[in-house]
Structures are given as structure tokens and as C-alpha cells.
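Appendix B, record 7
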Amino acid sequence: MINEMITSFHRHTRIMDMSITTPILQVIKDFLSSKIIQLIFGLILLVFIGLYLKKRYRANCDSIENKYYRDKDEILIGVNYHLYHSSKIRYLFWTGGYDSTFLLIQALLIEGFPIQPIYIKCQNLDTQFGIQGRENQYKEIETMKLLRKRIIIDYPHVKPMFLPTLYVYTIKKDLQMTHTFRKIHQQFGFFTRDVTQYERMARFSIHFNRPIEVGLEKCGTGLDVATQGIRNYEGTKECQILSLAELETLNKLNNADTDNTSGHLKKDYKLLTIFRNFRFPIVHMTKEDVKQFSARQKKLYLLQMTWTCWHPTIEGKPCNTCPQCLKRINLDNFR
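C-alpha cells (predicted):
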């Protein structure tokens, strides 16, 4: 008898639940099908799209002008950063990686020049579109800040010479330069894609209108291959590509025997003038050369702090599978 009463109670409860739930579902359905609600959702979607486009515009490698900022945490109280004329300052691209950090160490600590580091953080650095930027951007910035603190602690006399980094978040659009880079990729086969950081760096350097040093070492890939045979003054901080007149001469020499009727595209070396504001102070050195030299100068511990991974793990560790990880030189237990 008791069991029958319990069963009957449960049955009536389910019926009541269904009778209550059905009107609620209908109300929700009517609510969502309302034109006013649909309009509101549409407006919300437009707002999110607008915010997306605004973010792309505000931190984009194709913008109205070069824009950058300095992190206030890198500006030391009581330090005069205006002691040196811009003509005396060495401007260099820095990422916190092995090569660019060695370039910084060489210029600042070994040769004693005031330096202006430049870090490009616009969000489509390596792609045509994007709002995320590089996966390793946060690790690169974190590494640069740690290196800066370590250098200032160990070498306090360089404080006014170690200028706060310029964090570039937009680069001036230049369709002619972008088109030229694509032609370089097509004609010469240089670079793996027709949209890379080197096009952005070249464009920034031209519109920044100053020579900027690149931590390019002898690696046999990318920019090294693209500029091999057309560089002057190798082994010095003035190393740069040949002049326009010299490149035009190279055009005549290399294309003199080309049969234009065969359909083969002549290589136009003048295209490479987009790299004219780059300087290559360490392009004559291999990674092993850099390691040995740094060890002799007792600066290797700074290179051991560098970051060289494209795809850090969630824990912030190197992935050990990307091209950068595979090319990383072993600095462990080396003195």
C-alpha cells in the first residue's frame, strides 16, 4: 500500500513538472523569436565585430604610421636618457632571442655604445590577418625584461646607455614595399612565405628613417641567404647591402645571358634595396662562434637566459619541436 502511494506521488510529480516546464520552454522560445530580441543580439554582434576591427586597426602591421611606446617600468628614476645624440645611438631589433641578445650584449657591454632596442609586437607580424600576434610574444617580452634587469644589476654604469625598448604596435602601410617583398619571394625563392616579419621590419626601418641592426648570424637560411653576395663591410657594424648602383650592375652581369624569349623571369636585384636600412654586424658569425666569443667575454650567462621557441607550452616551457627549438644551440654546463 505504501509503495503504491509513493509510486503514485512520483507519477503526479512528473506530470506537474512537465506541465510547469512546457510553458517555460514556450516562453523562452517566444522570447528568442521576438524581432526585438533578434535586433538586440544583432547589435551586440556588430559591437563585437567593431571591437575586433578596432583592435586589428590599433595594433596592425598595415597602418597609417609607425607607432610605438615605452614601458614605464623600464624608465628608471633619476636616469637621463638624453645624454646621447641620435647619431651616436645604435638602433637594433631585439626579441630576447639568442642572436639579437648577443648583438645587444656586443654593442652595449663589449663595444660600449648607447643602444635603442626595438621590439615589433603588431598582431599580424607573420600573417596577413590576425589579432593574437605570435604565440611566444609574452615569453619574448618577459625574457627581455628579465635580461634588462640582470644587465642593469651587473653593469649599473650602462643605465643611461640602455634606452627603454620601443614597443612597435603599428607599422606604416607601404603597398609598394609589400609588393616588392612578394616579388623577391617569387623571383628568387627567398623566404618561406611572401608575408614574414622581415617585410614588416624592412618597412618599419624605411619609415623610421634610421639604420637598424639585425641580429642575423651565418645560418644559411632566410635573410642570410637573401643578402649573401650583396653585402659590404662584413665583420663590422656598418655591414649592409650594396648600393642601388651596385645592384643595377649586378643585374646586368647576372642577366646578360638570360634568354628573354624562353619565358624565364629575370632576377631583379634592385628589389633587394628594401633592406637598405638594415645593418648586419654579426652576419659573419655562426651560433658556435657567438657561444665561444661570449664565453671568452664572460657574458655567456646572459645568453643562457634567452628565449628561442615559437610555441611555448601552457606552463611557459619550450615546446622542443618547433624549428627554433630544433636549431637552439646547447648552452647547458658550458663555461
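Remarks on this record: The chain has two domains: 2-53, 60-327. The mean pLDDT is 85.
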